[in-house]
Amino acid sequence: MGTKNPSVPLRAQARPTGNKHPNRRPGTAHRTGGGIVHDNTRHTTRFTVIGNHLAQHRELSLLAIGLGTHLQSLPKGAPADIKTLTARFPEGATRIAAALRELETHGYLRRERRRTSSGRIVTRTVSCNQPTVTPGRAEETPEPRPEPREVRGPGGEREAVPKASERRPHKPLSAVPRPVYSGPGILQAATDLLAGLRRQDPSLLLSARDTAHLAPGVAAWLDRDVTPAAVRRALTADLPPEGVRRPAAFLAHRLTAQLPPPPPFRVSAAPTPVRHPVQNCDGCDRGFRAPEPGRCRDCRTDDLEDA
After folding, report:
1. Across residues 288-297, what is the average pLDDT?
2. Count of CB atoms within 10 A of residue 96's CB?
3. For residues 243 and 219, what is the distance between their CA atoms, to the nearest angstrom?
4. What is d(CA 304, CA 21) in angstroms, rounded to the nearest whole number?
5. How far apart are CA 37 and CA 155, in angstroms?
6. Predicted TM-score (pTM) of this structure
7. Sequence-ordered alpha helix ranges (H) in 56-157
């Protein structure tokens, strides 16, 4: 009862891969005659051609090979995110995510980020039936960094910063709409609106230069009878779940792509003529309209002639 089991391993062993598996001996199936026998029927509908380079891949796990086969069999536009795959198969999200990374590493899967017409960034999954080099994963020659120069900080410490001539140029933002009326009041309201967007989402924090560039675009919306609350909703709705990497470029695109039309032209109504009450003339007792009692026009004319 007190003797420990000497056959229990001290720690978990890693899964053998490739030709390192103890039960894998080259040529065993051919020598013993116990290999697989195929009973094939030719498919004419609902089939997918899978290359042996995937089905018999030496480095991919069995889960990755099966998942790659499933992805190649899906029609165009079918959902292939981790949530959908987890609902479809008994494997958990962690194992499915690891298998997707295997396929991506070996060139059978590619993930691209695209911007929709509404400005939202979505991730598109591309399944490759031939292994390719994943864009963005190829080795790139790093750009030489500029030699830093030393400057003195506020506390006297040394700081190494690149020279102004060696810094990367700031990528200009796209043009934004301009308002018909650009008074200081409407520009200040646009600036205040942009400065408050970070309260809606911290990733929408803008610099002073970007705010000055985007303010005329917001003013163009306000100039078209769009309320500040409606502008704020249009700029902050349906943000990417991973956050906004370049908030100024993102907002410039939305201000331009979603600019509403000008308000309809309204003709101002003519003023209603004033109708004075009827008065009796003090000279001839004839009725006439006037704001206050007095003499009619004919009596006033006679008075001028007598004078």
Report:
1. 85
2. 21
3. 25
4. 129
5. 80
6. 0.36
7. 62-73, 82-88, 93-105
